[in-house]
Amino acid sequence: MQNDVLKMVKAKADEWLTGNYDEETKAEVKRLLENDDNAELIDAFYRDLEFGTGGLRGIMGAGSNRMNIYTVGAATQGLSNYLKIAFADLGQIKVAIGHDCRNNSRLFAETAAKIFSANGFKVYLFEDLRPTPELSYAIRELGCQSGIILTASHNPKEYNGYKAYWNDGSQVVAPHDVNIIREVEKVKVDDIRFDGSEENITIMGADMDEKFLSKVVTVSLSPDVVERQKDLKIVYTPIHGTGVKLVPMALNRMGFTNVIHIPEQDVVSGDFPTVVSPNPEEPAAMKLAMEKAAEVDADIVMATDPDADRIGVAVKNDKGGFFIVNGNQTVLLFLYYIITKRKEKGDLVGNEFVVKTIVTSELVAEIARRNDVEYYDCYTGFKYIASVIRENEGVKKYIGGGEESFGFLPADFVRDKDAVSSCALMAEIAAWAKDSGKSLFELLQDIYLEYGFSKERMKYVVRKGKAGAEEIQQMMVNFRENPPKELAGSKVAVVKDYSTLKAKNLLDGSETDIDQKETSNVLQFFTEDGSKVSVRPSGTEPKIKFYIEVKGKLESRAQYDQLDAEANEKVDKVMANMGL
User: Fold this and answer.
1) pTM, 2 dp
2) What local confidence, expressed as pLDDT, does residue 5 receive?
3) Which of 156, 210, 226, 464 could serve as 468's disulfide partner, Cβ 3.0–4.6 Å?
4) Which are the catalytic amino acids?
């Protein structure tokens, strides 16, 4: 079996040695072939990069399983071919292109622009790095049929990626994603039209920024509060990425005057010199910002990942130390505030809805239910949240949605997670809390007191390369064939398998259908006492992820530390039961 794989991989690599590839690429392929250890060669060629929940993403380098001008080129040519089929009746197809701060992002963006233009499309290319949500907005504003952004989001510096968008400004979903892959798979290197047409390319800059920012400020629900608390101490870091200009500008437009920077992290760099991984979910990435917050006694810390679609928030606890609010808590704060303010204003008229992903805290659903706001569950990936918005457009009003992985969208002028608007609104929430004599931490406790307490933790297991992918698939098989009977002392009552769209009640043997339009490789286990464990392989990284949520009842703020500690112990037990 291994020999067959190696034979296939070497044949594929030989095609790159003799095909229409540049000399630098051929030299790298030659090095891989001559290396006695075949692991790197196999990983570079054993498959072609595919669109997952986040699009095309991989390590940069030579090979069909790597991000380079040829895999980007094939994706762009394949997308072009599909757009010509999907929009055959249009006179001229329009696409928008953005990119982040990563190494090669500008090169890949310009390469894609040339290919689109060579295919006769009207191309709108940002002059320099821009946040992902602005690209989503630009697609809608310009009436484009598609768009792409070159980014690997929060991945380490070795990665880059390519996210494809449809005409509503959301990432492509079925059937378009599958159809694009089919077209991409047909593309040979000689089919890629690298010979761009400059007259078809328009450069975007400050004008689009201005339009976008004018929309961002519309997320405000309490301008009077911001006016009273305009000197709120906000520490913000873009972690070397695209939020560096627009987030401070958005905060300023909202009325905040005291934004404190981390100068060494305002440096735009694809090497991310101050962090190992530019992910605001990881404490190390927020370390400098939290140290600055402690130094200046800030009210709130906010960070954005390199393409400024994810927001990280840190707040001060009752002992004076700063801690990172997890993604579930961030969603809770946003939706609690939005629903509370809309109720105060009389803006909840009965047709509003919110969206969360299936792995996000069930407290979101509880808040929605108790306030007579409709809520939807969808798969992981913001393109699924955008799909729900699209399906309800013109009928119901979207007022917010998010996922546990630090993504939130406060308004539908963007159709992807939007950290620019989210930073603006989260600052307003901090101002609202302060105006009421509370900290954000106390506001979070208030939510738990009213709606119930939950503790969430995500654990992932990394398994790289072809062997790793196979091991991850086998883990899913094992969980399906031998689901846990008990988690932290509570019986597993329901098992949901999204690959079959069936939910089995293990207590009475009944089976019901899961209300989703398509299948997904996800398992969920629900216990009698309300705990939930979700298991899913990542669509963009060599990981299998475990999302754990346990419940509790908070009687008073004084009880919080004890309840939190007990919940942590319970999560540990659940993890042990899952073999983690």
Assistant:
1) 0.95
2) 87
3) 464
4) 153
242 backbone dihedrals φ, ψ, rounded to 5°: -75, -10
Q: Report which secondary-structure segment, H or E, holds 165.
A: strand 159-165
Angstrom distance (rounded) from CA 315 to CA 333: 12
Q: How many Å apart are CA 374 and CA 386, to the nearest integer?
A: 16
Structure tokens at 113: 């622009």
Across the range 2-27, mean pLDDT stands at: 91
For the ranges 184-198, 310-324, 460-474, the lowest mean pLDDT is seen at: 460-474
Cα 254 from chain centroid?
25
CA angle 123, 125, 128 (to 5 degrees): 175
**Nearest alpha carbon to residue 160 among 106, 110, 102:** 102
DSSP code per residue over 198-267: GGGEEEE-HHHHHHHHHHHGGG-S-HHHHHHTTT--EEEE-TTSTHHHHHHHHHHHHT---EEE-GGGSS
> What's the distance, Cα to Cα, between the start and end of the chain in Å?
30
Angle between helices 327-345 and 363-370 (to 10 degrees): 10
Percent of the chain residues topping a pLDDT of 70: 98
The amino acid at residue 389 is I
d(CA 392, CA 404): 23
pLDDT per residue over 518-563, tens digit each? Answer: 999 999 999 999 999 999 998 667 899 999 999 999 999 999 999 9
**pLDDT exceeds cutoff 60 at 355:** yes
Nearest Cα to 397, choosing from 346, 350, 351, 345? 351
With a CB cutoff of 8 Å and minimum separation 6, the contacts of 576 are none
Q: Which two tokens stand for residue 157?
A: 């510096």
Distance of alpha carbon 424 from alpha carbon 252, whole angstroms: 9
The dihedral built from the CA positions of residue 554, 560, 564 and 570, taken in this order, carries a sign that is negative
Cβ burial 464-500 (10 Å sphere, 16+ → b, else e): eebebbeebeebbeebeeeebeebbebebbbbbbbee
